[in-house]
Amino acid sequence: MEAVLQTRCLLSLPPNPTRVRVRSLLSPSQGLKQRLFASKPLGLSGLSLSYKEVPSFVAKPNGLSPKGKNFICKAEAAAATDDQPLFGETQKPKFLGIELVTLKKIIPLGLMFFCILFNYTILRDTKDVLVVTAKGSSAEIIPFLKTWVNLPMAIGFMLLYTKLANVLSKKALFYTVIVPFIAFFGAFGFMLYPLNNYIHPEALADKLLAVLGPRFLGPLAILRIWSFCLFYVMAELWGSVVISVLFWGFANQITTVDEAKRFYPMFGLGANIALIFSGRTVKYFSNLRKNLGPGVDGWAISLKGMMSIVVLMGLAICFLYWWVNKFVPLPTRSMKKKEKPKMGTMESLKFLVSSKYIRDLATLVVAYGISINLVEVTWKSKLKAQFPSPNEYSSFMGDFSTATGIATFTMMLLSQFIFDKYGWGAAARITPTVLLLTGVGFFSLILFGDPLGPTLAKFGMTPLLAAVYVGAMQNIFSKSAKYSLFDPCKEMAYIPLDEDTKVKGKAAIDVVCNPLGKSGGALIQQFMILTFGSLASSTPYLGGILLVIVLAWLAAAKSLDTQFTALRKEEELEKEMERAAVKIPVVSETGNVTLAGGSLLNQAAGDSTGSTSETSTPSNI
User: What does the domain layout of the chain look like in residue ranges?
Assistant: First the structure.
């Protein structure tokens, strides 16, 4: 119960105290009824004990008190406010209403998150430039990279991480994981890339391409530019390992639940600020080529500058981690371990099939992964055609990252209004609707761009440039809608489920649907490339597949909205019934405080006929 009783009791009472003396000791100005039915609920955050010495009523003292003296124990459960320390504790210093010990955790965590996301944006933009614009490669390499290189490397890393976690301390594990990333990115900028002409087997790749044909350009490009592909995989792992595993694991370790509820949403806004600044950084270094003389590899200079920043940010992350562990006390945790649901792939599939609610939720997750992948890879192939130079490509990606950060920041501010005004169903349908409309426009410009050429020329654009801009808008709005609406909708959908379905459903979707969504689009593209010879030849079919998947996504969102609303109403009804069944404390005519069941809470004095019974207004408990 949020409301607790403030009571004043006598540790030692004389045998027959007068009514006047008892009433005076019970402080009528703040009597029992006033305390029971106070409008402001009282919490358990504070407990103050004070002792008051009063003259004895009888010559022979009670055995509980010293001779000749009686003590009144005044025990008050004070209101649960942040300003009131616990019994025996001193007031903690605050700044702007926040405890300094909390600020010592949140500020370094915010700076760590900024540095990690700053690096991730630079690495994400750079990895695409390297593998897409490299000689003998194209955007067709990306589906093969994600399936046959990135996925095995991710699985291998997690197996290694699990073994290291069993033998290393948390601090040693953090440094053991992040330092190789920092060392690799520094070595790539200053050693591997300058030597790429010597370490890449281009002659062997050319011979194999002549034998196998152009359909195998993508798979053979992995061999041809293996160091660039290694950079691509390490950049992908930075996002999943350093952000998801290291940072959030550390944040959850040192923060309390109340701190997390208050400050974690701010990290999301800070992430988009990092996206904006890192996009400007990529833009700046990509334009360095304009100020260099002829014969100078501008992309190599730009790469050294960006990798230097990545290394410095990485060292800053390590310093902040060391500082927090050195100077910030960790919160105490319960030693009780909770059992985690462990479901294999087949068990997850069976659970997915058995529940319509979980099937619809799984459809949302898989559909997003496939849809965004189908459009993104096709867009990057057009992006290379428009910006063949690495510096031009990277400069455009810098603008793209900045625009994504601004759009996501704005959408996060609007998301609360959308949820409050239009509800879960409308919010869940915004992401597929945006993706469908922009996807139709993008594929239409690719398939029917020539007839639109004269009209686009009036605006100073070619069909290819228009497709690039529309594809960029599609990615920007889809990602911002995903971060601000799709992800919250997905997590909210678990809330009204019973605990067993909630736990097993989330485990099933994590095991099956997330990997299926990420690799499903890549597998479809690989099949299309090997069947029709190139990504461009398969574009009409990819557009048709996108339409079918998004329509299935919208249908699943509508079905899930109906079920979600019904479960919410059922949950609200159960809460109302529980509130109606709460037993309300009543003060009897004798002054005894009893519950409806008859349990005695307090008995102040033997005769208290002066008190009158009152009924109370139920409050939320």
Answer: 94-329, 341-578
